[in-house]
Design goal:
Elements: H1 2-20, H2 25-48, H3 58-68
């Protein structure tokens, strides 16, 4: 489900933005770019917090949960 949902996400966001408030193409493209950049930053950050001995990502997931709260 995650694989298909990840690919359908930008389409849903685009449709929601068009229905809510039509914006120029530059605004839409830049918001998509910022979303991709933030995803890359999260992946790099989670990899940096990974335990070097066991490879456990518990610390990074707890940090992500705290960030969402």
């Amino acid at each position: 489900m995650g694989f298909f949902l990840l690919s359908a996400g930008p389409i849903g966001f685009q449709y929601g933005a068009e229905v809510a408030f039509p914006a120029s193409e530059d605004v839409k493209r830049s918001s998509y770019t910022y979303g991709q950049i933030s995803g890359i930053i999260f992946i790099i950050g989670m990899d940096a917090l990974k335990s070097p001995v066991t490879g456990s990502m518990i610390l990074s997931l707890v940090f992500l949960i705290a960030l969402m709260c």
